[in-house]
Amino acid sequence: MRRTSFRAITVATAAATLFAASITAATAGIAAGSDRPEVAGYAPGMVAALERDLGLTTSEAVDRLKTDEALSEKQLTIAKTLDKGYAGAWVDGSELFVAVTDRSAAAEVRAAGANAVTVDRSLSQLDRLATKAYQAAPEAKIAATYVDVEFNSVVMEVAEGAKGAVAAAVKQAGISAGSVSVVEVAELPRTLINVIGGNAYYIGGSRCSVGFSATGGFVTAGHCGSRGATTSQPSGTFQVSSFPGNDYGYVSVGSDDNPVGAVNNYNGGTVNVAGSSQAAVGATVCRSGSTTGWHCGTIQAFNATVNYAQGSVHGLIRTNVCAEPGDSGGSLLAGAQAQGLTSGGSGNCSSGGTTYFQPVNEALSAANVSLITGGGGSTPPPTACEDERTAFSGSLGSGGQAAEPGTTGFSVLSGTITGCLDGPTGTDFDLYLQKVSGGSWTTVAQGITAAADESVSYRGTSGTYRWVVDAYSGSGSYTGGYTTP
């Protein structure tokens, strides 16, 4: 199972108002496990993550969440009633501690059912102190500055060997040594970026779009940067760049950035990249770019030559997909197959236009790197849909859901229900079995692997059931079937 988060299923229906109103609540606990109803009220995967990371049992994790929620609400209420003497609050086990600067405030805290701790500085004073200390110290040596409410002080984390210089700067600013703690840390913080096709990156004051993730970085348009040019968000360097003549480039990124075999569909999700097989003239293609997002059209020709002001570029893919400045370098996909990198064109995404793309395989070959795929092109597991008695089919866009064979469901006797789903190649489609319980649809079984195809088997009692198909990533037509007792 690869789900650590789940978009709540919300299947629209005009025929079953009672069901539609309760679907989201009934399915919110899917990722945490439908056999554990006590976790259904929390964000998908949260309880499982607490069990894993904090070494808790399910009941301990749920109890902790409930306690923290109650104490957090109490803390907010107390903070609103206190005057300027409020100095922060923290939870320790099942108890709430509130720091205050005077006795009258402490009495209010105790009356509200929390533990009062009298301190010297209010939270607003600590915040001002933190700002003053940060401004006084050499910025390049600071890892982080924050207020520690439990110790009523400011903490400055600095690079190794910088403690003396930072402490001296803080002292020179007139800040007492006891109010600021300077601590050396072995590692400075850094941004962590997933490199995904269609996302923006920056070269000086210009913006372009990532084409496709490749070994150690990504391919993009050559006109976005010359060899040696540096990028930010993600940070990298153009190792290969060819323009005009061609229009490809390869940017290597640092170890903190993670190239992912996916493309942003600008609809809240991504499309897995399965390979780079060339599509045919007339094939439907979609483009992702950081200015205009996700737009589709068809391939009109290959091996086109375009005359830009900077010179001619040969061997391009011509399409009727629109694009605008900033989309340069972005991804062109045919289904889950990488096709090209946005080069240039005419028109816009308001009135339409013509856009040309640098073939991706030429760019990969020139940089001597390999395309990173997201697993969408693997051979799907057998689902034996043809053996199921009742068939269904449909089509979904990425992020869409559909109830099968309809929103009102089907009635069955006790026994085993089996179902399967055959989704479009290179996508990630999921299958859920839901049952009416107490007037709401509740998920009782699910197939949620990273593949396009899923199979589900569930032994249950008599009642009303239905299937929900979820286009978790990617779009296209699906078929499926099910068998009832």
TrEMBL record:
Write the record's keywords in alphabetical order, separated by commas: Disulfide bond, Hydrolase, Protease, Serine protease, Signal, Zymogen
Region forming the signal peptide: 1-28
Q: Which InterPro entries match?
A: Pept_S1_alpha_lytic, Pept_S1A_streptogrisin, Peptidase_S1_PA, Peptidase_S1_PA_chymotrypsin, Streptogrisin_prodomain
Domain named Peptidase S1A alpha-lytic prodomain: which ranges?
Answer: 121-175
Q: Which family does it belong to?
A: Belongs to the peptidase S1 family.
What domain of life does the UniProt record list for this protein's source? Bacteria
Please name one Pfam family that this protein belongs to.
Pro_Al_protease
Name by which UniProt lists this protein: Alpha-lytic protease prodomain-containing protein
